[in-house]
Each structure stands twice: as structure tokens, then as C-alpha cells.
Amino acid sequence: MSESQHPTHDDTPLTPAPFGSGLSTVYDALDRLVAARDLEDAAVVVEVAPFGRQVLRAGRRPLRDDERGLLERAPGLYVETTEGEAAADPMDADLMVTLTELALRHDVTQRATGQP
Q1: Is 58 exposed, middle or buried (0-12, 13-18, 19+ CB in 10 A)?
Q2: Which residue has the higher pLDDT, 58 or 64?
């Protein structure tokens, strides 16, 4: 079965995300995931030195009272549908965690070298 014949294939062309910082790329990816999967919310949790635990939510929404307990969760991708919390696709989760870790390291390296 070719990729375009796969039932989850979307032929809609993607507009490349403008690359600013690593964090802006992660937030853009979370927003795209929410739109593509028709989700209510998505958040990625990572542990990256020297930052420690980081939680990024789609739409750059703050955690506020952390009603979902994201600060206590293991690194991963957490998604919410209209029915409530759902299991994230394992490949989406792996990709989002890896993207976030790389993005944070990229931003640290840029700042350390004085690049904008």
C-alpha cells in the first residue's frame, strides 16, 4: 500500500513553519497536532538539562493550577479530546518528545554562542 493509499494519509499540502526559535517550532508542532487530530489540547513533558522538567502546551497556554497533573507526569505527549484525556499515538509521542528535547538544546546552544 502506498502512502497516499493509507487511510490516515492527508493530501493537504503543509505550509512550512517559519523557523524562529526551537520553542516556537515545538509550539507550532503542538498546534498543528491539535488541528490535525481534532484535539482539545496537547502538551509535551520533557526533562532536559539544564532546564529540568519542562511542560509545553498547545496554544502556549499556561498550566495555571495544573489540573491535569502534567508537572508530575513522566516525559511524553499528553492529549485531550472532547471526551477527556486520550492516549497519544506512540509515534506522535516519540516525535514530539524528541523534537522538544532537540529544540531546547538548540535554543541553549544559540544563546551560549550569542546567536539571536
Answers
A1: buried
A2: 58
Which sequence spans correspond to the domains of the chain? Answer: 17-109
Sole residue written with cell 523557523: 19
Contact call for residues 37 and 79 (beta carbons, < 8 A):
yes
SS3 state of residue 81? strand
Q: Where are the alpha helices (DSSP H) in the chain?
A: 22-37, 90-112
Report d(CA 33, CA 39) in Å as an integer.
8
Separation of alpha carbons 105 and 99, rounded Å? 10
Share of the chain above pLDDT 90, in %: 60
| pTM, entire model | 0.79
